[in-house]
UniProtKB/TrEMBL annotation:
<keyword id="KW-0804">Transcription</keyword>
<keyword id="KW-0678">Repressor</keyword>
<keyword id="KW-0805">Transcription regulation</keyword>
<feature type="region of interest" description="Disordered">
    <location>
        <begin position="55"/>
        <end position="81"/>
    </location>
</feature>
<dbReference type="InterPro" id="IPR015257">
    <property type="entry name" value="Maf1"/>
</dbReference>
<dbReference type="InterPro" id="IPR038564">
    <property type="entry name" value="Maf1_sf"/>
</dbReference>
<comment type="function">
    <text>Element of the TORC1 signaling pathway that acts as a mediator of diverse signals and that represses RNA polymerase III transcription. Inhibits the de novo assembly of TFIIIB onto DNA.</text>
</comment>
<dbReference type="GO" id="GO:0016480">
    <property type="term" value="P:negative regulation of transcription by RNA polymerase III"/>
</dbReference>
<keyword id="KW-0539">Nucleus</keyword>
<dbReference type="GO" id="GO:0000994">
    <property type="term" value="F:RNA polymerase III core binding"/>
</dbReference>
<dbReference type="GO" id="GO:0005634">
    <property type="term" value="C:nucleus"/>
</dbReference>
<dbReference type="Pfam" id="PF09174">
    <property type="entry name" value="Maf1"/>
</dbReference>
<dbReference type="GO" id="GO:0005737">
    <property type="term" value="C:cytoplasm"/>
</dbReference>
<comment type="similarity">
    <text>Belongs to the MAF1 family.</text>
</comment>
<protein>
    <recommendedName>
        <fullName>Repressor of RNA polymerase III transcription MAF1</fullName>
    </recommendedName>
</protein>
Amino acid sequence: MKFIENADLDLVANTISENAIDCKFDVRIESYSCKMVNVDKKEWKKMKDFNNELQPLSPPELASSEGRFGTSPNHGRFRHLSQSSISGGDSDFDEPHLVNAISRKVLFDLITVLNHSYGDYDFSELPSESFTYFSDFNQVVKDVDSKFASSLSNNAFLKDLYWSAIDKEIQIKGCSIFSLIPSYEKDPFTENGCIWSFNYFFRNKTMKRILFFSCRAMRGDSGFESSSPDEFMNDQD
């Protein structure tokens, strides 16, 4: 997994952070290549006996129960094999698959992104049920808008800025979208001082790339220190 430097995404993330209202934002808009680097290959080899096993996902209503979305008729409804994904095809999980399961390689990629982005945490043992899949991009937009509505100054203008930057980098229509469900144990989205959060993985199979978009709204007195994937650059040779 290689972090792809992108000055435009960094600028957008910084702009969002600078416009926080009555809180501090920890914003990540990060692009990663799914090509394995040396450290990833070592970890992947440990899983070689299980590479072909499909891994179950949690249904979207579990994310909704954490207050991420309002009620929606799409909650709890998985896409049938005959239905198209956001990308318009049925191959967005790499292998023949169940509608509520992903390949172990996709799970490995999602966990690797988290470990790169939040270096103070170890997500290596996360089960696949910690993630969910969203077939409707509009749900994602609704969630992000609802979080930023009262916390982000100039959101009406800025939302065009960040969605345009994300689409330019990852081509949203060609993506499968996943999210980590906060565990209320040990993850950055439930630590003390976090008021609310969201996180989304936009995975474009054709581009072999994942874009990670997350935000934590932290209390002003929380004293959090944001981490950066830059510290992992030495591991990518």
